[in-house]
Amino acid sequence: MDYLQIVGGKKLGGSVKISGAKNAALPLIASTILAKNGVKISNLPDVKDINTLLRLLENLGAAYTYEGNEAFIETSGLEKTTATYDIVRTMRASILVLGPLLSRFGHCEVSLPGGCAIGQRPIDLHLKALELMGAKIDIKNGYVLATAPDGLKGAQILFDKITVTGTENILMAAVLAKGKTTIINAAKEPEVTQLCQVLKDAGVDIEGIESEEITIYGTAGELLDFKPVEVIPDRIEAGTYLCAGAVTNSKISVENVEPLHLEAVLSKLTQMGFGLDVDRDRITINPAENIKPVKIVTKEYPGFPTDMQAQFMALATQAQGPSIIEERLFENRFMHASELMRFGADISLQGSVATVFGPKKLFGADVMATDLRASSALVLAALAAEGVSNIHRIYHLDRGYERLEEKLNMLGADVRRLKE
Ligand code: EPZ
User: Fold this and answer.
1) pLDDT digit string (tens) for 60-112?
2) Ligand 1 pocket, 55 CB below 6 A?
3) 99, 138, 144, 188: which sits with the fewest CB atoms below 10 Å from its CB?
4) What integer pLDDT is reported at residue 115 of this predicted model?
5) C-alpha closest to that of 195 among 32, 3, 354, 345
6) Mean pLDDT of 167-186
7) Which pLDDT score is estimated for 383?
8) With a 6 A CB cut-off, is 163 part of the ligand 1 pocket?
9) In this structure, are residues 93 and 31 in contact, taking their beta carbons and an 8 Å threshold?
10) How far apart (Å, rounded) are the C-alpha atoms in residues 107 and 35?
11) Residue 170, ligand 1, Cβ within 6 A
12) In ligand 1, which atom is closest to the CA atom of 165?
């Protein structure tokens, strides 16, 4: 197993190019199940999760090429409909094939994703919505068995909670359904918006894109004619690198970004005292004279993203005073707190609220990554810490950050990937 060795305490500088968004790319790849033509997807991040989903499609009978951040996916030969346990257990987002497989084939079998390090993460809302569309759902031997022998029918879906992949799954189910589907309380994340836009460009009549009420007029089984797609920039990767600049109080730039997608994050960095220069597709963070504490509550987009919570916890260790971080989306997303304390952070947890008492001088330590974003918080703490840190179990990082050590080293960090 690989681990990262980081010699911390260095100032960073320069500029880093942000990759395409993993969480936009995954539903886009799943949506190719709905295509009648081969689909070209560019600006794909070269990360583990993308390879996993491509492999899943290949197991189902699709063909693809993937080189230089560009994939060409041909699903016309797709004939199997079972997403097996061995793949789904490595990546929960595999559940994204449920909607498109069911709407194209009238049945499918998808291994039920279990809980994970950040919480229970049920998929009940996906399943209830599909039932409203006429599907029959059984859970047997750890699999979701979904059937819709007469095809899915349009329905009015009101999500009790805003769900990102739930909205994406139902969007993809609805495009081949018969009639009109309305999703109320839909997610508005930029990744959802891109999926809507791509489906619209492929000929589906969709109204209410970017709003909490999306209406889809299904094609009654007619497959779609996709145009080439370019994945939007990864707002979470961009936010993570901005935090790398912030936690080391250095001037760095992120390039190939969409600043509009980062408003909540940029606003918190500004409140903490960092100067930001925002251009069309580039953001520069400047050192703060005095890093101020911050109050953060995670929310659905356009609120502050749960996927940036861990990174801000690492950053808050350097603020002049106590910061309050409240996690509202996932019930168990503070696993990084105890690992951050190994660097010398002072964090107290009470239910869904963490208080981070800054400023604390951090020192290098051996720490263990528990999930993707928790891992990036440990990297940030290691960059700020004096001395050497070893971050173990970095396969979590490899799921979502493309060439992390190379990009950090280009900014002047000292990061090495070693074998345990
Ligand atoms: C997506 O997960 C992202 N994953 C996550 O990214 C992200 O943290 C999350 O949205 C929130 O922004 C992808 O896009 C692939 P949800 P998702 O359904 O869709 C509850 C990362 O690090 N819920 O919006 O699985 C759920 O438990 C990650 O890249 C139900 O109760 O999240 C949670 O409390 C990890 N029943 C809340 O809703 C359901 O059927 C929001 O979850 C579905 C969700």
Assistant:
1) 999 999 999 999 999 999 999 999 999 999 999 999 999 999 999 999 999 99
2) no
3) 138
4) 67
5) 32
6) 98
7) 98
8) yes
9) no
10) 17
11) no
12) 19
Task: List the one residue out of 3, 1, 14 whose CA is nearest residue 413.
Answer: 14
The arithmetic mean of pLDDT across residues 143-156, rounded, is 96
Asked if residue 302 has a cis previous peptide bond (ω within 30° of 0), the answer is: yes
Is residue 119 predicted with pLDDT exceeding 90? Answer: no
pLDDT at 287: 98
Pocket test for ligand 1, best of 29, 88, 121 (most atoms within 8 A of CB): 121
pLDDT at 342: 98
Q: Dihedral angle at the C-alpha atoms of 259, 316, 310, 24, nearest 10 degrees?
A: 0
Q: H or E segment at 135? A: none
Residue 221 confidence class, pLDDT cut points 50, 70, 90: very high
Question: Is 103 in a helix, a strand, or coil?
Answer: helix
Cβ contact 199:174 at 8 Å: no
The predicted model scores a pTM of: 0.98
Over range 18-32, report the average pLDDT.
Answer: 98
Cα–Cα distance, 368 to 137 (Å, whole number): 38
Express each pLDDT in 233-291 by its tens digit: 999 999 999 999 999 999 999 999 999 999 999 999 999 999 999 999 999 999 999 99
Terminal Cα distance for the chain, rounded: 6
**CB–CB of 339/378 below 8 Å?**
yes
Backbone angles phi, psi at 409, to 5 degrees: -65, -35
Question: Is-contact 60 29, C-beta < 8 A?
Answer: no
- From residue 73, alpha-carbon distances to 34, 213, 231 in Å are 11, 30, 14
DSSP code of residue 226: P
- Report the catalytic residues: 116
CA of 195 to the centre of ligand 1 (A): 16
Ligand 1: distance of its center to the CA of 306 in Å?
9
Q: Are 12 and 412 in contact (CB under 8 A)?
A: yes
Distances from the Cα of 129 to the Cα of 124, 137, 286, angstroms:
9, 11, 46
The predicted model gives 35-40 an average pLDDT of 98
Q: Alpha carbon 178 to chain centroid distance?
A: 31
Task: Name the token pair of 207.
Answer: 């109204």
> 127 CB under 6 A from ligand 1?
no
Structure tokens at 403: 């060439």
> What is the distance between the alpha carbons of residues 102 and 89, in angstroms, rounded to a whole number?
20
Hey, which residues does 10 pair with through a beta bridge?
Answer: none
